[in-house]
Please model this.
Amino acid sequence: MPASANSAASAASQTPLDTEGGFGVYVHWPFCQSKCPYCDFNSHVVANIDQARWSRALARELEHMRELSGPRRVRSIFFGGGTPSLMLPQTVEAVLQKIAALWTMEEGAEITLEANPTSVEADRFRGYRAAGVNRLSLGVQSLDDAQLKFLGRLHSADEALRAIALAREIFPRLSFDLIYARPGQTRDAWEKELRAALAHAADHLSLYQLTIEPDTAFAKLYEKGAFVLPEDEDAAALYALTGEVCAERGLSAYEVSNYAVPGAESRHNLVYWRYGDYAGVGPGAHGRITADGVRLATRAFRMPGEWLEKVEREGQGLEAREEIAPAEQGDEMMLMGLRLSEGVSLSRHARISGTALSPSRIETLAAEGLLACDGDIIRATAEGRMVLDALLAKLLA
Model:
């Protein structure tokens, strides 16, 4: 990693909690080669894509977002999807150039692109690096071929390992995803797979428990009893094991599902979790932008064709742009911030929401071992993170 990028990443990890969280740009590429059965993201399988047309449309919506946000310093850019590694490197470069022309880029700004580890997409890695991408996020999901087939992935474990090796050669920073708590997965099997992954990892891993999302192929199969997920107690044991094994390799759980060596945390995701502002462009993209002292929630039309036509007609593809009330801002801040091991500033929460959290609720949750208090900062404990939804429901009631 270049010294400037490393120092910037370290600075991001040490940013005081009582700040505005930074500003990022999220670019949604909605196309995939196939739809994974567990995925509820806004992704669509389309044979032919006019990338020049899509590049122009993304540029136009970025211009609209700049009008809303005013001048800002961009801390991070994230190409998500869908499968952004289906984008041509020229398309990525054009979008990055547009962002740099509209806003000021922070020195060492993090620029992440999500990729699938198929051979064809891996061949594009050098093109993405030349375009300005300095962090790759690979959707590996498993290092077992049978499990990859179950998860609907198009790559093999061998292809994944080759893509990881190539990415480590080309990009200053690399992360990859794995899904665990799969049907029938034992503690020993997951530990073996995780240790194998860590042997190939760079400085960051995203490790997600398999969940059944509504309106997915897995939801239908699950309802029919086609497979069974681990019981809550077994899933909790796998989660605890995950943290222990990663810690042995120097990767701490800085967020519920994300592990990194100090300074290698995802700067873009920290913008979300620290409740910063971000402009979201592309079909289905969400954003949070503070304009003239008012915090706005933006949401674009989900269907690619509808979004594209609206942008070409009106210069933006937004379905909704709504003011977020202070109390709702406070809830959002806490929902995001308690995912982080660093916790949340109570004084910042009170300033944003206009209301202080109940001290008695905090004391009760701390006595139950779910919250830890350190002056102005509250954090979810290891036990609290395992039941974070229930913890938040009690805290924000």
Residues 330 and 351 are 9 Å apart (CA to CA). The first strand starts at residue 23 and ends at 29.
